[in-house]
Amino acid sequence: MNAANYYDGYLLEKWRKGDEDALKSLIDQYQQKVFGFVFCLVGRNYDRAYELGVSSFAQAFYEFKASGEEKLFFPRMVEIAIELSQKANVVFSPGASDFSGYARGKKRILEVLNEALQALPFESRVHFLLREQLGLPYHYISAILNLSENEAREKILQAKTQFRKHLEERLEHGV
Amino acid sequence: MASDSSVCQKIHERIKPFLDDLLAEEEYQETRTHLDTCRSCRKKVEAVGSFWHHIQELANVEVPADFGSTVVFRLQAAPAAVRRTEELKPQSTWFFKLAVFLILGVGGAWLANTYFRNHPAPIQTPPPQMTTQVFHEPEPVSEEEAKILYQELNAIAKVLGPPKSKSDTDVAVNQPVLPPERAAEEPVPAGKTEAAVPKREHWHFRYEREMTKTKVLDTIHVLRIRIRFQGAAALVLEATGEQLKRLEEEARRISNQASPLMRFTIERGGKEQKHIVSIFFQSLSQSRPDVYHWHLRFSLSNRDRLPDLFHQAGALLTYQSEDIIVAELARKKIEALNLEMKRIEGIFVESDALKPLTEAPAGEESVALSLFIES
Lengths: 175, 375
Known about the structure:
Helix content of chain B: 25-40%
Strand content of chain A: under 5%
Distance between the termini of chain B: 81 Å
Number of helices of chain B: 11
Shape of chain B: elongated
Largest sheet of chain B: 7 strands, mixed
Radius of gyration of chain A: 17 Å
Shape of chain A: globular
CATH topology of the largest domain in chain A: Rna Polymerase Sigma Factor, Chain: A
Oligomer: heterodimer
């Protein structure tokens, strides 16, 4: 258990004993990561990411409060976020993602990358984002996915390869 | 040295920690020195940096200001709403209670879908606050810009490792969330009428809804429905003494919860073995005078297709944050019901059976449907 996990456990324990500030600290610590992850996972659909993100936090906190389990908090929350996002089955709408505010060239790059990302099957998108967007180490990812570390590596490699293929196919038709 | 492949390989492995400034000082200086002299590694670092930068940008979104407070609110106001699905499923009496939620969810989506298909011009205009996705064409770029963008994206693609053949990469890893459409396998028996159904159960509830239809492709429309329940759902059912006892226990348990948003009551019906189970919802939002009500009764016979409808409704329903408690309760119950569906046999939703049964109350748009459940 590293320092961050130890600190999570400490905050959770404080929250179990009634310290609401500890709860808020945990939310503040992870909301950007979880919201950003779910946001990408569901095709940059802001409303759904909001609902799914809140549900992930709430369910993770509930589990920890109810069971007192000593699982690592953040990986478990990401696992819940994945489960809920898959059930939500959000339909990706090409062109609906809002990249306004970016310069035109960058906007186009982000649009193309987003399309390639959303073209991935859901699980591949999860594998890709866990590694490339959240930047999680393989042992974390393997714990989240319930896979061996080697299997996790293989899945991520496969996802990246699929991503490249989609990207290249997209580029064949011009930018 | 600059072109030494083993050194380059070592540098490639260090690119991410280098970009994140996580290398030890000695490794950092070694990498910098190598990059000063090796053009191909420098290009690789630039491409990897560009790739990661853009992937991070995709997730770069401002977290809603009320995100944290909504999590806290949900935990405080409705602990049951965040209970895990598995904890909701086991007891047989759950069916009755869960079925209410199923009907609320499925019926809402189904009714709205059917109604709008048959009534393209609704009586009242949907409220202006609803979300409608805006589709836009990409802004045109010049040939020169396109060339630069192509090069940048191509460099990003190359960061992701060697391409594979289509057969290698076309592996569909995930399972579809929606079950395969079973309608084709199990067509609706033609000519099935109310008279053929031996037993009926009627459900009544009112809700507010907003709906948007979005055209994705010529053949695909996404239907999004926002529902706010405000009335009561009543299920007339037959219950044995033991079932009734458990229902009453559940009613007490739910009614004792802190949330004021839902009340669960059981009243004796006209006949000795029939009881009315009512669930009352109260919306968190009281300020939507422009939203109108529907008064519904559903018709259902043959249970086989209920899981499909559940999935479709679950995929279609979206909720406003202000309705989060009610929505979460409904969603959880619906999910739980889905897990229970293997234990329910012989239900079939017969869309042909949908038909108006009652007149609209004064000042309200009303559509009434009838629900039949075959025993």
